[in-house]
Amino acid sequence: MTDVQASTFNPGPALLDIRGLHKQYGQVEVLKGVDLTMQRGNVVTLIGSSGSGKTTLLRCVNMLEEFQGGQILLEGESIGYVEHNGKRQRHPEKIIAQHRAMTGMAFQQFNLFPHLTALQNVTLGLLKVKKLHKDAAVALAEKWLERVGLLERRNHFPGQLSGGQQQRVAIARAIAMNPSLMLFDEVTSALDPELVGEVLSVIKGLAEDGMTMLLVTHEMRFAFEVSDKIVFMNQGRIEEQGAPKALFERPQSPRLAEFLKNTRF
Predict the structure, then answer these.
(1) Mind listing the pLDDT tens digit for each residue in 33-68?
(2) Residue 12: what pLDDT?
């Protein structure tokens, strides 16, 4: 962890503040009262076994999933719902869209439009959502494609790119929208092993630049190296959280110790 990253742990107003979050699918409770805060510039990584609630938590933050209880505050604004006359009400879709634009998300699957070039995939949101002039959108898209090492392939279609290159285009597309918080959901899980490194290298560089990120990953070495804080989830709850060195070398929870013992690091 760099000195710059370490300094972001100084107390200050939380960029993201999750309070008592509950999420159910029918009768199955997936998130059971999650509390989590992170400041601007933090890199926080969620770890845990499959089904522990990591991805669901990420998807609640940008309202790809609705939640039944608790509150998510992003830059002080209540995401998804508001209390009115003692009752919980869902925000209108226009407000939810505005809040969703405060986050960027990179998924396990790249979700690129196959009929658009890399450049067109990145400029689409800048033109349609940000309402930028075409020249400004192209310049910004080219800046971020260069940042992820793909400027020379800007006119290639997704089918002409490797999986790692497609994921880097997807990351450039999300970051070009200038989100307050970047969400990464196991972005290397669909990649061949030899392509994983190029994507993790991009994310690591963004972390070093001070981007605020909340990640889900099974890459434990990467999580250790890039994170300010590690959050271990187990059965819908946060079981343990803290600095990477403390959690990986001195886990307090028997379940975390077992998880780490069975995980390649």
Answers:
(1) 999 999 999 999 999 999 999 999 999 999 999 999
(2) 65
Return contacts of 198-202, CB within 8 angstroms, 24+ apart: 198/149, 198/164, 198/165, 198/168, 199/164, 199/167, 199/168, 199/171, 202/147, 202/148, 202/149, 202/168, 202/171
Cα distance between residue 243 and residue 137, in whole Å: 38
Tell which residue, 170, 177, 233, has the closest CA to residue 203.
Answer: 170
pLDDT in tens, 16-36: 999 999 999 999 999 999 999
For residue 79, what is the DSSP state? P
CB 64 within 8 A of CB 15: no
Mean pLDDT of 238-249: 95
pTM over 0.70: yes
Question: How would DSSP label each residue in 83-109?
Answer: EETTEEEEPPHHHHHHHHTTEEEE-SS
Q: What would the pLDDT profile of 192-223 be if each residue is shown by its tens digit? A: 888 999 999 999 999 999 999 999 999 999 99
Report in angstroms the alpha-carbon separations of 128 from 1, 31, 65, 93, 117. Answer: 37, 34, 24, 17, 16
Give every CB contact of residue 93 below 8 A, 6+ residues apart in sequence. Answer: none
- Residue located via tokens 């070093």: 208
